[in-house]
Protein 1
Amino acid sequence: MTKSKTVYVCQNCGAESPKWIGRCPSCREWNTYHEEIIAPANQKASSFISGQVRRKPELLDNIKADEKNRTATGISELDRILGGGMVGGSLILIGGEPGVGKSTLALQLALSLKNTTILYVSGEESEEQISLRAKRLKNSNPLCYVLCETELETILAHSEQLKPGLIIIDSIQTISTTMLESSAGTVSQVRESAAQLLKYSKVTGIPVFLIGHITKDGTLAGPKVLEHIVDVVLYFEGDNNYVYRILRSAKNRFGSTSEIGIFEMAEAGLREVNNPSEMFINQHDEALSGISIAATVDGLRPFLIETQALVSSAVYGTPQRSATGFDIRRLNMLLAVLEKRAGFRLGVKDVFLNIAGGIKVSDPAIDLAIVSSVLSSNLDIPVSREVCLAGETGLSGEIRPVSRIEQRIREASKMGFKKIYISKFHKGISLKGVEIEVVHVGKIEHLVRGLFG
Ligand code: TYD
Ligand code: MG
């Protein structure tokens, strides 16, 4: 029996130290070091994978790789961010906060991928729970196997027998390998299990989906330590109080990271949102003040989104400012610009701002719509329902150009808008076959005159 060794591992970033330290020198977090036992490598376990297939150096020119190796998942929003489907032998991590819908997405994937044997491993839910969820999703796949197991070696042994076309692991934090003595969920277990799965998927060519939890404060041994091991990192975001979920790619070895997938959490699982503009614009019978529509772009995807503002006289000495889905500091900046450059006395007003659908927007092009909503509410004059806006506001009140303006204009036109306000500094926009009036504005004053006369 060889002696086991203990080390202290930072649960935030995975840095190791032979002794306990209060503050991690690597990620500068306090109190994140936990003692972990590192057992000497279990020879039998480690040879399980690498012992069977020994790889030889291969001439690059002789290696055959083609795009046919991609398999469509049956969920088009997922295919879109994966770059057209799953690549054989890839390790894909889906991270997200608890309750956002990771397990639902994973099971939906298992059920929609037909004619493929699927091994769905759950360390969190029982077979009955998974079966109930599948019933709720109203879909079935006769080749989907469920395994409630947490030991990696057992999972791989089952996979060797079953020879599945896809493995899903929910979640990586519950899986542990016998090679280490530390408990499941610790950084070393998460890292080692993921490394073993990577090796397994590369050798066998089976794509593996890993689910990983992240907590708001990031204290759990999280997907952060896995990001460099896996091939693709997807983050599932969304506010649990709203139905919209956005799947974002943070890393993709086989495609671009600028695509996003949009879903809606419905009674029977996640529904793909193919036309997000329709979802994020509320239908009103009459034009209301304080509402304007922004033509934004997230990743590569243009969509229109409604911004709402309420400006009222401050009841208390200090005016209140609140923003949902938008950076409050940027709102304060925009209000200061309106006060200083356009002469609106907003310093004595309460301002509340809301982006429709619980979506967080960081695209600077939304500035113009926010300014319009605030002014519309302040003046109590509605902005026409046929108008949308795209532009960034600078500190001196100038309207700056934004990226992908042609895409934004096309989307606005497609959604039936008659007029779009953009920066006057956009040059050479080619808009063949697009029927929309493009109004170029250089300063906030021009915008105010154009919108409110
Ligand atoms: P879940 O996939 O369990 O989240 P995670 O694995 O990320 O922790 O699902 C989260 C929520 O989704 C849950 O609170 C209930 C809701 N939900 C629906 O609204 N409709 C459905 O069809 C399903 C399966 C779940
Ligand atoms: Mg889950």
Protein 2
Amino acid sequence: MQAAARSVAVYPGSFDPIHNGHLAVISRAIAIFPKIVVGILENTGKDALFSAAERVEMMRDIYREEPRVEVRSFTGLLVSFLRELDARVVLRGMRAVSDFEYEFQMALMNRRLHPDAETVFLTAEEEYTYLSSRLVKEVAALGGDVAGLVPDQVRTRLEQRYRRLTHPPTR
Ligand code: PNS
């Protein structure tokens, strides 16, 4: 593997929304790789709460003073995005055994599509092993406090979004 391709690790995901478990993976990755490109999947196929532009904006805001982290969105295959960046390392966080099967399948499919690509798994922080974007949204939608689980600006956005969804502006 060329040094340039090794030095960039792509951290792909839906990030709808970003939570502290994601940030912990990025912090750990920064200690290993010189550069991390966060790849935010535009069309998640799920009903996204935040648009790709909003997810990119939130992530860029969090890393505005961290030159080692670049935030981009992508569409289509992850391996095409890797090729576009001339990157070969895919970074994923692993929370629990329940993540394993899905992650294993993705890693093998990506390797089949791009034999030089390597997926590197980092274990989640113990305190966040139960954390997922889905649960964060569920708690926030029902009025629960997600402080300490997501960055402050994401918490504010969640509150605003759910307030708007439950009390749409009247004309
Ligand atoms: O945070 P998520 O939703 O678990 O991330 C999943 C993601 C974005 C990494 C995965 O769905 C993906 O890479 N999608 C791009 C389409 C693709 O390449 N599919 C084939 C590889 S399995």
